[in-house]
Design goal:
457 residues, 6-stranded mixed β-sheet, alpha+beta, 5-stranded mixed β-sheet
């Protein structure tokens, strides 16, 4: 184990080159006060993102997914610049345009080799400022989104998340979703998408972040000609994020894709992602994730795979996922068994040939899990686009473009008691939502099992 920790430390040291410091980010404003952050780039892959605050949380519930539809229409635009269609420019340069829509914000991004990047900026801003709202394009995209929706809900884990988020985020700012619902797809129209764009095209909601070594003055001049003329419309203040409360309940849905096995998920509330408690929970989650596999799959052999994840949004939830479960009898008891072992300060490192647990003291291996979480953060934030997302997230959460790096570095200072306390408070709790996706033949039996209290075992 000490050898593994040493290897982690060496890898972590090498990854620190992806950390940002205050000197690496310069802040400017356009003529209309849109903030622009320019991030130093030591490589040749440049990127720029137009971030728009609000996301799906500012829409009505029956408009779920409409931000995704809007940015799909923006991205479909084969706009022409200097007599060159965007498609031809991309073929020549290899440049990529992409978008993301979430609960809190949306973004439109260009990623390019440095020699083609200035043109890429012009295409990106032109796409954002001049979307094509044509009915035939709308119809094509709608057909694609309907097909994607029904593909999604036939996937057990996606179907589980689809229902879970509607239950968990009820009566919160997140009760309008980045994904579509049957109701929102039925009500979608070109006029409704146009109205959403009118609110999106607003200097008061926009932030631009660039990673490039191109002369900063040139970048700002280009942006002032396009984005610097956008007028404000008085954006509403960002909604305050409540702490969600997950009630103890069970819910089962059937899927034609499920035959002899079931997918079972457990959801629970977690702390905000800019708190020390959240960092402690990430470490606890990493330990718990490994132990779930050793117990449910290794000892009992009841599933194909299993694990634990927590989200990183302003409003978070955690999730246990048990894929292709062939025997769900006493499943809650078996999950509780894992939790109680971790709470005792023990870690299950393996299963021997007689199916007995092989334990290790948690204090012997916790350093390795802290290091692995820090490594995970740095390895998932190496590309230009990931760095731009990181800077924007840091601005929103800490009002500082690089504070997030210092925040994650503090994982190393966490104590075992902090980690176990977070685990007990958030993961090892009966206040969780159990959702099972199974066949119609197993539906009643699985619901009965998930409705049982742990105290009944």
């Amino acid at each position: 184990m000490k050898k593994n920790i040493f290897i982690c430390l060496l890898l972590l040291f090498s990854l620190r080159v992806f950390s940002l410091e205050a000197k690496d980010v310069k802040a400017y404003t356009l003529n209309n006060s849109i903030p622009v952050y320019i991030v130093k780039n030591s490589g040749r892959i440049d990127a720029m993102s137009i971030f728009v605050r609000g996301g799906s949380s500012e829409l009505k519930k029956d408009e779920s997914g409409y931000k995704d539809f809007l940015y799909s229409m923006i991205l479909y635009n084969n706009i022409t610049r200097n007599s060159v269609p965007r498609g031809d420019y991309q073929d020549k340069s290899g440049t990529k345009f992409s978008y993301y829509t979430g609960y809190d914000f949306s973004r439109l991004t260009v990623t390019s080799i440095d020699e083609y990047f200035e043109e890429g900026i012009d295409y990106l801003t032109a796409m954002f400022r001049n979307p094509i709202f044509k009915q035939d394009l709308f119809n094509i995209i709608k057909t694609n989104k309907i097909n994607d929706f029904y593909t999604m809900i036939y996937t057990p884990e996606s179907l589980s998340d689809y229902h879970a988020e509607q239950i968990i985020f009820e009566n919160t700012p997140y009760n309008s979703f980045p994904f579509y619902t049957e109701e929102s797809l039925e009500k979608i129209s070109l006029d409704r998408i146009k109205k959403i764009y009118e609110k999106e095209f607003n200097e008061d909601k926009i932030c631009i972040i660039v990673r490039s070594n191109i002369n900063e003055k040139e970048i700002l001049e280009r942006l002032n000609k396009t984005m610097g003329v956008i007028k404000g419309a008085g954006a509403a203040a960002e909604k305050k994020s409540p702490v969600i409360k997950v009630k103890s309940q069970a819910f089962v849905k059937t899927s034609p894709d499920v035959q002899e096995t079931s997918t079972i998920c457990r959801y629970y509330a977690t702390p905000a992602s800019n708190t020390r408690e959240y960092l402690a929970l990430r470490v606890a989650s990493a330990c718990y994730d490994k132990m779930l596999g050793n117990v449910l799959r290794g000892k009992y052999g009841i599933c194909y795979s299993c694990g634990n994840v927590i989200t990183g949004r302003r409003i978070n939830y955690g999730q246990d996922i048990i894929f292709s479960c062939s025997d769900f009898n006493e499943i809650k008891q078996k999950v509780s068994e894992v939790q109680n072992i971790l709470l005792s300060g023990k870690y299950i490192c393996s299963i021997d040939e007689e199916k007995n647990f092989v334990f290790e003291d948690l204090n012997e291996i916790i350093e390795g899990f802290k290091n692995s979480q820090l490594i995970s953060f740095y390895t998932s934030n190496r590309s230009s686009v990931e760095i731009l997302d990181n800077v924007y997230g840091s601005i929103r959460q800490f009002n500082n473009p690089v504070q997030v790096y210092k925040y994650f570095d503090s994982i190393i200072t966490l104590t075992q008691s902090e980690i176990l306390e977070a685990f007990k408070k958030y993961i090892a709790t009966e206040n969780s939502l159990w959702i099972g996706i199974t066949s119609s033949e197993q539906e009643e039996k699985l619901l009965e099992e998930l409705e049982r209290s742990e105290n009944e075992f």
